[in-house]
Specification:
13 strands, nine-stranded parallel β-sheet, TIM Barrel
Length: 360
């Protein structure tokens, strides 16, 4: 199995912005030192939900302070960026990290992020699909010529080129929508499961569907294990594992449920209930998030407990066909020391049980 640490650096009321960012860096450095395979970082802006608005700067700091861990994005919201600049930034990161970069992408879902940057959310899906094409061509062709709806350039020398050839691995965050899974498979992009797919117990089915679609498109996939995001918290006793998160585990749902500039922060609909093109399946998303905060209603068992309990629950996760897991190792507002302890317990007492076990 492969394991990773994940954060969007949520800004809990009990800490300063500076402390949240610096503590996140310390957690990533510890994960690197302990041999955890990957770190995944997610872009957000304009709310306490996540501080990584300057995600490329933070990724550069991670690359400079780590040696072995692969550095992934889960995700960069492509419609909010000029794709040529994304190609430049990510290629630079791949070079300075020694080829350790995983490119995770998504179309975004928070309307206030689009409104705040002046991007029409109705164009999100079209921008997303075009951006993927632009970025891959910018990475792999000596000079970029592209004529699309949003990008029009001729004979452009885009530098640097990424170290990994033909380019860094690409991952796409998907929901339970078959269309998003089909699109990822059509472009030979690995899916990132988790979030709503985990809450509804459908992550294994989503990955199975992706493999079926890869087969239909004639793309090899047996050697690939798409990752799944999942909350992880390891403590010395079950009492701590169950009691430490009380009052903290609903932070993300609480923030996403709150009002932004033009509707709820965590929804694509505006305050009048208008749904942008391509987001019709989001009608029940907040209800799904609320289920996430009740561990008894998640699909696969929550990876929360003593090392022995987490080992058993990981075995159940693996038996469902999931061989690649990453997650936050604590909760917003949990003392930094306990997050660090959770990472260390997982790396030293849980991971060794899966390093030599054949994948499902």
């Amino acid at each position: 199995m492969k394991f990773g640490i994940f954060t969007i650096v949520p800004w809990h009321e009990d800490v300063t912005q500076e402390d949240a960012l610096n503590q996140a860096l310390e957690q990533v450095v510890l994960a690197d030192q302990l041999g955890i395979d990957e770190v995944w970082l997610g872009e957000h802006r304009f709310s306490r939900h996540g501080l990584l608005s300057g995600i490329f700067s933070f990724l550069g700091a991670v690359a400079a302070r780590t040696k072995q861990i692969r550095i992934g994005t889960a995700v960069i919201v492509l419609p909010l960026h000029n794709p040529i600049m994304v190609a430049e930034e990510t290629a630079m990161l791949d070079v300075i990290s020694g080829g350790r970069f995983n490119f995770g992408i998504g179309a975004g879902y928070q309307r206030q992020e689009f409104d705040g940057l002046g991007v029409d959310m109705d164009e999100s899906r079209d921008r997303f699909k075009e951006a993927i094409d632009v970025i891959i061509k910018a990475w792999t062709e000596e000079r970029l010529t592209y004529h699309g709806k949003f990008t029009n350039v001729d004979d452009l020398l885009v530098m640097p080129k990424p170290l990994q050839k033909p380019h860094p691995p690409i991952f796409q965050a998907v929901s339970t929508s078959p269309a998003s899974v089909d699109f990822a498979a059509s472009r030979q992009i690995q899916v990132i499961a988790g979030g709503p797919t985990d809450i509804m117990g459908q992550a294994p089915q989503v990955i199975k569907l992706w493999r079926e679609k890869m087969e239909e498109y004639g793309h090899a996939h047996a050697h690939l294990d798409p990752p799944m995001s999942k909350s992880i918290y390891v403590a010395p006793t079950m009492e701590e594992a169950e009691n430490d998160p009380i009052g903290l585990e609903d932070f993300s749902s609480r923030i996403l449920r709150s009002d932004g500039n033009n509707g709820a922060i965590g929804m694509p609909t505006d305050k009048h209930g208008n749904v942008p093109k391509g987001y019709e399946h989001w009608a029940n998303r907040q209800n799904d998030r609320d289920r996430r905060d009740d561990p008894g209603h998640a699909g696969l068992p929550p990876l929360r407990g003593t090392p022995e309990v987490v080992i058993q629950r990981l075995k159940e996760t693996q038996a469902a066909g999931i061989n690649h897991v990453f997650g936050a190792f604590g909760f917003p507002g949990l003392p930094h020391e306990k997050v660090m302890r959770s990472i260390e317990l997982f790396a030293t007492q849980v991971m060794p049980h899966f390093q030599e076990v054949p994948v499902a």
